[in-house]
Amino acid sequence: MKIPSSLDQLIDALRILPGVGPKSAQRMAYHLLQRNQSGAAALAHALADALTKLRHCQRCNTFTEFDLCELCADPARDKRQLCVVEMPTDLLRIEQTLAFKGCYFVLMGKLSPLDGVGPDDIHFDKLLARAQDGEVEEVILSTNFTVEGEATAHYLAELLRAQGLRVSRIARGLPSGGELEHVDSSTLAQALLERRSL
Amino acid sequence: MKIPSSLDQLIDALRILPGVGPKSAQRMAYHLLQRNQSGAAALAHALADALTKLRHCQRCNTFTEFDLCELCADPARDKRQLCVVEMPTDLLRIEQTLAFKGCYFVLMGKLSPLDGVGPDDIHFDKLLARAQDGEVEEVILSTNFTVEGEATAHYLAELLRAQGLRVSRIARGLPSGGELEHVDSSTLAQALLERRSL
């Protein structure tokens, strides 16, 4: 007894999704076919549509349906500050704070030697060209404070400083309203090391 | 700053997958677009293909690309025994044991009042018609020993016995090679209750 090949191929195709193994792929396939055929058709359409329409913003590298994304096309943004983030979600998160009026560059990834992601895979050349447009005065590295995010920030700092650019890193420390008693040791240790003079 | 609508729609569409919330859907969308566009295209194609080609076997209700599935079309199978399972995976699992030579019926689900799945959603009428073809002598209920699987088995037993059919349930008990010391209490208690006379 073999399972029908189109079912087999669907299960295989679902396994490319991150975090989806053989068992979940099977469960997803049966769920789609048995309980949500219209959802499956919508997913197929959304995938094809996104693949056709989405590209990278020529300036900031985020996903957009046009040459320039909404933010890069906005003349009111401060061209002197360039905030570098890992993913579009990070950009949206910073925008939600309403605390930053400059421009962004989205790396669409991070250095991650263990996953085989090196400097060539992240298109740092596009960032270098962007940072050297003559208007940018400061590059604010806002990658995550994970091992990979930190490595990416260090690598980029070297690269950008070598071009004579001013480079900064968002602050690490206790959260607003945070209590020493409840913060993890690593954050507390770093907050002590990176203390600010008043 | 809004995210492009085709990206938004893709994230929405991915959320129909079981076990996928807003965060994973976002992660999946970025992964597909940034790291695996060919995989995404293959997934879109596999979905459309499966939706077009797959249908339910007219006799056993499993997924097939033809009117009858491979097993139902096989004249060598014993027509007197009908094994009822919840999903196609269960059928494949039983086939792997090489211990059953009869026919199957795949419910494609189970009674699950909490999820709003009642007798009308499971197409028990198709099973009833199948079991009353004149050749079936025994219906072997092989739904899972979960709460829903047990409820389904009890419901079906009533229904099928009322039609004068012989109904049995696969055995529950200790696994082969299992030791009393290591088996869970519920299984052990049931194994005592359902002891066989020798």
From TrEMBL, chains A, B:
GO biological process: DNA recombination; DNA repair
PROSITE patterns registered for this protein in UniProt: RECR, TOPRIM
C4-type zinc finger span: 57-72
Boundaries of every Toprim domain copy: 80-175
Source species, domain of life: Bacteria
Gene3D superfamilies: 3.40.1360.10, RecR Domain 1
InterPro entries associated with the record: DNA_Rcmb_RecR, Rcmb_RecR, Rcmb_RecR_Znf, TOPRIM_dom, TOPRIM_RecR
SUPFAM superfamilies tied to this protein: Recombination protein RecR
Alphabetical keyword list: DNA damage, DNA recombination, DNA repair, Metal-binding, Zinc, Zinc-finger
GO MF term (any one): DNA binding
Family matches, as SMART domains: TOPRIM
Family assignment from sequence similarity: Belongs to the RecR family.
Function: May play a role in DNA repair. It seems to be involved in an RecBC-independent recombinational process of DNA repair. It may act with RecF and RecO.
Name this polypeptide is given: Recombination protein RecR
Species assigned in the record: Chitinimonas arctica
Gene that produces this protein: recR
